[in-house]
C-alpha cells in the first residue's frame, strides 16, 4: 500500500529561525497520527504545508501522490482542515457558511443541505441553523468549524488543536467520530499538545521538537522504551523536567 503522505527532506525557515529541519515521513491510509510537540516545535507549520496552505519550503511533499506545490488545489479537494481558530464569517448562519464550503467543493445543493442539517443536529445545533453566528459561543463556532472540515467527506483530515472551546460531551463525541472515520479508511492527522487526548485517539504518535522528529511509534512502543506515561515520555524527550520545583518557584512570587 502506497503512503497517503510522503515527506522527504522537509525544511522550513522564517528568516534566520529554522522551524522544520529535514523531516522524512511516510503515513499510511487509515492511520490516526498524533502529532505532538512543545509550542514552537513546528506542528502548525507542518500542517499548513501538508494542507497546501504554505508552498514556501524545501524538500518534497506528496499528498495522495499529488505534489503540494505543483497542484495545491487538487490537494485541498481531498483534505479536510480543522484549525484551532479560523475566520468563520460569523455574520453568516451555520447553513449559509456550510453552503459556501460545500459549493467550494462542488457538492450538490441537496447533499449539502442534508449533511449540514444532520451534522448540526448531532452537535446539538438544530435550533440554531438559521441564526447568525456572531451570537454564538466559542464552542458553538468550533462545532460549525469541525463540520466544515468534514462535510465534503475528505479522505484525509487534518486537525490542529480542534478541541478549543468544546464542552466535555462534545470532546467525547469527537473522539468517537475520529475512531469511526478511521474505521471507514480515512486518515487522521491530529496535531495537539494535549497528551491525554492524543494517547487515547492515536494509533501512531510522532513527537517533534525544535523542528525535528525525535520519536515515532505507537503509544505502547513509546511506553515500553521509556516505561512511562505519554506525558512523561514527552517531558523526558523534550528536555523539560522538574515541573514540581518550577511550580513551587512560581508560587513563591506570592511571598515577595
Can you tell me about this structure?
- By secondary structure, this protein is an alpha/beta fold.
- It has one domain: Rossmann fold (3-Layer(aba) Sandwich).
- The chain contains ten helices and ten strands.
- The protein has helices at residues 43-50, 72-78, 94-104, 109-122, 138-150, 168-183, 195-201, 219-226, 230-237, 243-251, and strands at 5-14, 17-27, 32-36, 58-63, 66-67, 79-82, 156-160, 187-192, 204-209, 212-217.
- The strands form two sheets. The chain has a six-stranded mixed beta sheet, sandwiched between helices. Strands 2-1-4-5 form a four-stranded antiparallel beta sheet, covered by helices on one side.
- Helix 3 packs across helix 4 (109-122).
- The longest helix is centred in the last third of the chain and has 16 residues, at 168-183.
- It is globular.
- It starts with a strand and ends in a 5-residue tail after the last helix.
- The mean pLDDT is 88.
